[in-house]
């Protein structure tokens, strides 16, 4: 049986007295694209941050590619992972944020090559060749020597995607990657993400782009109030939602 790439079982997360995730269960199989939709404050970013080792869960079980996030299991004992081990596991997951946070003093190509050289210890020349190939893949081969300030928001976001891919991740997480972009720049970024999905990448995408969710997602998940209210194929969830809360939300965004 194939191991899920992501398996969340009754994941709980609170910040002080605020319960943000209240039992989130979700399975993403290798090669699948899951889109997460839902109102602001429903816990979507927090969930991605838990998957990416940026937040510790308080209860439940969360694993990526068969390995518990943040812990190592021996028998029935759990040991917290050391920082180095966490960093190693994190390096296998790519994350793209709403704000791209490229290094302003580095060119596009340098941004893409930095982590593979510094974190993975890949030879500079090899990293450079892979970086050029990735910039080509996101449609920016002619921008390799441009600095972020010389690029549009959409181009910067595509560099950010190439930078994440440079680590050869087994899972890509996207947190509203097009929300900060001018409308005319959204399409190019979504096209890159669609290509990535078609290449077989496992992806979790938090997005308000319902067209993208409809066409690219295997599963669409509606989150509200720290729980998954409903999940299904795009045609089930977007066209025939069962839950009133899902219908309300879709009525506002579609
Ligand atoms: P979404 O991405 O769906 O908009 P978030 O996961 O960002 O939702 O946030 C869910 C809730 O958790 C919000 O009420 C937010 O204010 C709160 N929250 C998120 N991160 C923190 C934090 N580090 N400390 C305290 N509260 C937080
Ligand atoms: Mg968010």
TrEMBL record:
Keyword hit for Zinc: no
Pfam families: ABC_tran (PF00005)
Entry annotated with the keyword ATP-binding: yes
EC number(s) given by UniProt: 7.4.2.1
Class in the EC hierarchy, top level: translocase
Superkingdom of this protein's organism: Bacteria
Reactions performed catalytically: a polar amino acid(out) + ATP + H2O = a polar amino acid(in) + ADP + phosphate + H(+)
Listed InterPro entries: AAA+_ATPase (IPR003593), ABC_ATPase_HisP-typ (IPR030679), ABC_transporter-like_ATP-bd (IPR003439), ABC_transporter-like_CS (IPR017871), MetN_ABC_transporter-like (IPR050086), P-loop_NTPase (IPR027417)
Keywords: ATP-binding, Nucleotide-binding, Transport
Domain ABC transporter intervals: 6-250
One GO MF term attached to the UniProt entry: ATP binding
Family per similarity comment: Belongs to the ABC transporter superfamily.
Protein name: ABC-type polar-amino-acid transporter
């Amino acid at each position: 049986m194939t191991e899920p790439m992501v398996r969340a079982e009754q994941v709980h997360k609170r910040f002080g007295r605020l319960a943000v995730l209240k039992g989130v269960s979700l399975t993403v199989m290798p090669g699948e694209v899951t889109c997460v939709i839902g109102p602001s404050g429903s816990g979507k970013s927090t969930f991605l941050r838990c998957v990416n080792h940026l937040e510790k869960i308080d209860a439940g079980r969360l694993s990526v590619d068969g390995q518990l996030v943040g812990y190592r299991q021996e028998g029935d004992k759990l040991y917290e992972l050391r920082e180095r081990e966490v960093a190693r596991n994190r390096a296998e997951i790519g994350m793209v944020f709403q704000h791209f946070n490229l290094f302003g003093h580095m060119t596009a190509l340098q941004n893409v090559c930095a982590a593979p050289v510094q974190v993975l210890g890949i030879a500079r020349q090899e990293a450079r060749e892979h970086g050029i190939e990735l910039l080509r893949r996101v449609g920016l081969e002619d921008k390799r020597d441009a600095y972020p300030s010389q690029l549009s928001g959409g181009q910067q976001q595509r560099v950010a995607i190439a930078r994440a891919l440079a680590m050869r991740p087994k899972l890509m997480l996207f947190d509203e990657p097009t929300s900060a972009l001018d409308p005319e720049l959204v399409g190019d970024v979504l096209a890159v993400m669609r290509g990535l999905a078609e290449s077989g990448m496992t992806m979790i995408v938090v997005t308000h782009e319902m067209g993208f969710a409809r066409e690219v997602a295997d599963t669409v998940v509606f989150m509200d109030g720290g729980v998954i209210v409903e999940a299904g194929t795009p045609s089930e969830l977007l066209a025939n939602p069962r839950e009133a809360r899902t219908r309300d939300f879709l009525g506002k965004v579609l």
